[in-house]
Design goal:
Layout lengths: L1 H16 L1 E7 L5 E6 L4 E6 L4 H16 L4 E7 L9 H20 L4 E4 L1 H5 L10 H10 L14 H26 L4
Parallel strand pairs: 1-4, 4-5
Antiparallel strand pairs: 1-2, 2-3
Helix pairs in contact: 5-6
């Protein structure tokens, strides 16, 4: 019985070893991040603001990772309009969200939609600005550029990394069945 348990653990680790976890912040200043089970950042790309360029970025990430035997699992931040947000702004935000959904689906990348409250829980403090997100991503992924040359914050990158981290945590804590039912 003990040998069977160690074989199952070895197979589970092998399965985890080829998983890559994607995080997507669909905002206008959003990003896509890819991390592996060792929490190494494999890709971190800003949203280019253009659907064609986005498809090229995801195509490059998809091909490089799947050609190396990786299985991709993604988290897409589930967004909605905010009170007092302008109609035009809300429409653009929703458009970006739909574009990301379509791009992930077109590459057959299974994804879960996660609210900011869900992926932030246990990772960052409850604050209204993006500083806690940048600080948490900096702690988890040291060496990643989260500030621009003039000190501007790349909060889309931080959020994408933390969403990928959330998917990694949830997958390793038993969400395997959720992804399996989506065809992974």
């Amino acid at each position: 019985m003990r040998k069977k348990e160690s074989t199952e653990t070895a197979q589970e680790n092998l399965t985890l070893a080829n998983r890559v976890f994607l995080g997507v912040d669909p905002g206008a200043k959003g990003a896509i991040a890819a991390i592996n089970s060792e929490l190494q950042v494999l890709f971190l790309e800003d949203y280019p603001g253009d659907e064609v360029q986005l498809v090229k970025i995801v195509n490059r990430i998809y091909n490089e990772l799947t050609n190396n035997g990786c299985v991709l699992l993604a988290g897409l931040e589930k967004v909605h309009s905010m009170p007092k947000q302008g109609v035009s702004s809300s429409f653009k935000f929703g458009t970006n969200y739909g574009i990301w959904r379509g791009v992930l689906a077109s590459f057959s990348i299974p994804f879960l939609e996660v609210t900011p409250q869900k992926w932030q829980k246990g990772v960052i403090s409850k604050a209204r600005d993006k500083q806690p997100s940048i600080a948490a991503a900096g702690r988890l992924f040291p060496g990643v550029t989260l500030l621009g040359p003039k000190g501007g914050k790349f909060d889309g990158r931080a959020d994408a990394l933390l969403i990928a981290y959330y998917i990694f945590r949830e997958y390793t804590n038993g969400w395997r069945d959720t992804y399996s039912s989506k065809g992974s």
